[in-house]
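Batch job 17 of 40 flagged for manual review because the log was empty.
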Amino acid sequence: MKKIAPSILSADFSRLADEVGAVEKAGADVIHVDVMDGHFVPNITIGPLVVQGLRKLTSLPLDVHLMIENPDRYIDPFVQAGGNWITVHAEVCPHLRRTIKKVRQLNARPGIVLKPATPLKTLFPVLDEIDLILIMSVNPGFGGQSFIPSTLKKIERLRKIVDQNRYPLEIEVDGGVKVENIRDVSAAGADIFVVGTGIFKTNDYEETIRKLRQEIG
């Protein structure tokens, strides 16, 4: 089943509990949490304490995207805080297998993230060891960016590789996804759609999620 994952980076943080409750009620499948450290990306967002707070607000899986320089150091705190999925960037993990093993030992779903310019071949040695691949369709660090069209070809290539080898993993896409383009992203082969401003900057979350589902079929 294809999944909609609202990204709280675009939510109103002054009323975060209400925002999370609203998207869950509106039909979200996953809550996407962008963690930024001011080093790997220029922005700084949230830490394990906020994830711990989120865990009390929702029964949905928390998809924790670590946009940080040293993810291995922080995997345990984020899982203990309530993160169910932990995705780390291939660009900063010199020992991907070790990192994946650590996430799985903590009973969380391990995933690898690729920035737009990072080639798919980076993933080839670990494709049979991960639960999801997050393809960035913008350069990480800020919400509200426009989708990079060339990402569609990358998703298509990855979908073909996954299907041909029958890897039991999901393809997630993050960056600039909204009602106007989600059909193309779905057709390219995505399973999970991270949507930030495309949900939180609309007036009716339930109607927006309904439209998103209508587009992906």
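Reviewer: the log was empty due to a logging misconfiguration, but the result itself is present. The first strand starts at residue 3 and ends at 6. Unflagging and moving on to job 18.
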